[in-house]
Specification:
single chain; about 325 residues; alpha/beta; Rossmann fold; two-stranded parallel sheet; about 15% strand
Length: about 325
Amino acid sequence: MTGATGFVGRVAVARMAAAGLRPRLLLRRREPELEALASEVVRGDLRDREALARLVEGAGSVVHIGGIVAAVRPGDFQAVNAETTAALARAAVQAGARRFLLISSLAARQPELSPYAASKRAAEEAVLALSQEFSCCLLRPPGVYGPGDRATLPIFRQLRSGLVVVPARRDARFSLIHVEDLGRAIVALLQQPAASAWDGVPLPLDDGRKDGYRWSELAALAAERLARPIRVLHLPPSLLTPFTGAGAGWARLSGRPVMLSPGKLRELSWPDWVARAEPERLPPDGRPQLDFSRGFTSTLEWYEKRGWLKPRRSAAKEAQP
């Protein structure tokens, strides 16, 4: 398994271990908590071809979660997300692996929008090119959130503040999935390889909300949980274009990636990120259990307990003896 140190990877490893599956992990550095759940650790990273070969040696299944969501240069997405996936898939074939599970992204549905989306589509195509050699499952999760996620932390901060500012059309719709539901799906698929999701046809996931959410609907659900009104302010994406260009320049100069790149803005501006999931292709125990209403509360409480968000006054009072 790759990507164990990431947001999704940590949850997947924990769920796999709880189910009696102890994966061999690719790790660059010491991670005692993860290593305690692993059967073995291979030192290295995704660009280390020898480490990839050691990782898949004798493996029956390969789970590939590793990759990047932000980059200094657009070409970095192709190098890390697509080229390393192709190398891992070739190594899996040479090692005789029977199954390859790729955690892709719903962004792969629109590869023209950004270098990230294009790299995820290219990663899928690299796996599919070898689908005669092994069974493959291509999972396309939408926006993933939950305890431990720093990427969606700003959204939770805005929801709690009562004002959400988004560069999106008012009619834009999108799907979500809680990280625990994604981890549940991964484990269920590994335990039941005969499920139709292993046919190589991309499988979109969501939290069970058929038509996804509008930002106003998301705010209404959060407002109900917080017992306070939340306003949504839609900004024309064009207003942010100069800032994304400046951010890309800063990334090149500083060597540090920025999240709001021109490509990411195009993704955020796209009106239709509804997953249109096919739950019947998942084993029953891999289907979603947490809608946003429930997931919002547990995630917000985690952020507050860990100090990522200051506790709400009401929550702080409840915590006092």
